[in-house]
Amino acid sequence: MKYILYVLLLVGVINSSEAQKFKPSLNLAKGKTYTLSSRANSVIVQTVGGQQNTIKLDYDYRMAFKVTGVTDSVYSMEVSYQSLDMKMDMAGRGIEFNSEKHDPGDIPSTIVAAMMNKPFNVEMTKTGKIRSVTNIVKMVTASLGQLTGIDSAKKEQLKTMFLQTFGPSAFKGSLEVETAILPEVAVAKDDKWTVSTQLESPVKALVSMDYQLTDIAQGMYLIHGDGKIASDKNSPPVNINGLPVKYDLNGSVISDTRIDQSTGWLKEAKLKQVMMGSMHIADSPQVPGGMDIPVSFDTDLAITGN
Predict the structure, then answer these.
(1) Per the omega criterion (within 30 degrees of 0), is the bond before 183 cis?
(2) Helix 107-115 with 136-145: angle, nearest 10 deg
(3) What is the mean pLDDT of each run of 10 residues along the chain (306 residues)?
């Protein structure tokens, strides 16, 4: 009888452990600064007239997030770039935007250097969703204002180009891919939940991720993500070098993330994103009759946080 009672007790303990619920969520301290460092490598392949053109795009940046206010469900933050390096290789021709360069003749690097340590404002929910991004246009405009010897038309063109990459919508989507992975409700080990995100750059796309709490170990939540990505068919054409371009892309995203159990802040993540399809250039004087170009994107992203 005693043996049976011990067995029943053990089964009860096991069942209780298996049913234990966790609530991974942000628990940040007002006045404290948290950081994210991201490094990505992308390979873009376009096929034009039967010939493959390969573009390699690498970027490496570090951002600081200072918590300035806390409500029940939202963190107010001052966010700033600390460093930024973007490299693009097209058919052996290299372009680089590097905040560490100090060359007045290098206009792109001069602009990103002027953007460093210039705060803008973000509101982030406890699940990592971005509720608002403000003052980032003001920050980019002020950085462009430091350029000399460039007419207003050229500055406006540069502003449009930079806001396509660094504007509020583009920033929101790229940041949510890194932060918006936490569940709305408490979950047990192996439970799953779904998070949807909209990207704006390099193309407007919808991402639907199924996340799973795979383990809790050494003070970390281990979360695996598996999802799909598709270009937004309802979005208008994007202006690229004066040409109206519309994308038709589909792909997949896989991620593995380690989240600090006490703060909910990302400690380490790796993502693999693949998209394939075509880009359609509408009929125009430059491209009579239009053109369909097969294209693929293959991106590896690594993130660390403190």
Answers:
(1) no
(2) 130
(3) 48 54 95 97 90 92 97 94 92 85 84 93 96 93 81 81 84 92 95 92 86 96 97 82 86 97 97 94 84 93 96
Half-sphere exposure of 17 (CA within 13 A, CB side): 8
Alpha-carbon distance 21 to 178, whole Å? 24
177-211: b or e for each residue (b if 16 or more CB lie within 10 Å)? bbbbbbbeeebebeeebebebebbbbbbbbbebeb
What three-state secondary structure class fits 173? helix
| CB 181 within 8 Å of CB 192 | no
Q: What angle do CA 171, 172, 173 make, to 5 degrees?
A: 95
Q: For residue 24, what pLDDT is reported?
A: 95
Cα(144)–Cα(156) distance, integer angstroms: 9
Residues 169, 172: Cα–Cα separation, whole Å:
5
Regarding pTM above 0.85, the answer is yes
The DSSP bridge partners found for residue 252 are 228, 274
| Residue 179 three-state SS | helix
